[in-house]
Write a structure and sequence with these properties.
One of its GO terms (biological process) is protein urmylation. By secondary structure, the chain is of the alpha/beta class. The chain is built from 14 helices and twelve strands. 40% of the residues lie in helices and 10% in strands. The longest helix is centred in the middle third of the chain and has 20 residues.
Amino acid sequence: MPTLCVQCSKDRAVIVRPKNHQKLCKKCFITTFETEIHFTITSNNLFQRGERVAIGASGGKDSTVLASVLKTLNARYDYGVELLLLSVDEGIRGYRDDSLETVKRNAVQYEMPLTIVGYDELYGWTMDQVVEQVGKKGNCTYCGVFRRQALDRGAATLGVEHVVTGHNADDMAETVLMNLLRGDIARLSRTTSIITSTPSATAVANPNVLANIKRSKPLKYAYEKEIVLYAHHMSLDYFSTECIYSPEAFRGSARALIKNLERIRPSTILDIVRSGEDMARLCPGYEDNCRAGCNTAAQGEEEEAGCGSSVGRSAGGEMQKLEAILAQQHISEDGNSNGHSIEVEVKKVVTRVSKVKPSKKAPVQQTVGQCEKCGYMSSQRVCKACVLLEGLNKARPKTGIHIADGYI
């Protein structure tokens, strides 16, 4: 007897949700997935009627699913927003040039205007040139910083004040775990927030940089595996090759740990995300950060997982294996050998803890200003992008820092 869908009790179940092991038919899975995204959008008031929203499109599964779902939900629930595609060309031959072809097809498929901004025109460097100069070790630092500014500047050129990105629950959990393992709890307010923005007080001199560009993550609570399943069953056109410069990064270790925990407890990913949100509320200055749009990114630091799911993903290509299995239509009735989560009993350990007097030193509050060279938001005199560019340009004595309208 085939297993029936637990929701409609009519059609055969073909999917076991990684999030909770629910057995669903194709139609119910798609409806449930879209409804959960809609709930995330409405419960967090992500969109305002009449708003122009740019989708950070890389051609990968996350941004492609995001574009498809937002187009569907915008029509179904009448959000009243105008959707556009905004892509960044980092200048990586054999990777980004191919993925941008996918984005161009998506623009036609979803009937959305597409704008592409490139590192070469903004900074005078492509990532191929950067890697040739600095090597593969640490190149993601350059790319993350440059990409964040490129998205903001692209949005400014379009007159758009809201950019949505395809960060999913797996990305969020990995970032929370990385910050915990590094002891960097202060960053949790930004990394766990579904909305971040440039403070309106940061009025920049450069007319091509908006004073208030909001970013949001509609897929924040969506599992990566379910995004792959949705893309497969909706027959979406996306690019699945990872970045050729992606290193064996710390993120890959965090990802491998989370995947091992997920096999034991499926809710691990969301548990980590929720825990990160709760811990962020305990951090000094949390309320101030939230009133300013949860913006600790104004320090000029790169966005975690800046180029999407390809950053530092070195855990064995699990998603590629899943995509290959789906492509061959090798989905079993229940999708899992046992269909049950395994709970591990942890015995209480009593440890003697010495009393330590709490420090009375007040946390240092950084003041958000603007970079003296390019006008971008920064808590330092010169933003991180300009510092990195200055180091690169030492090998080009006659080449200035190329940002926006001209050389600086």
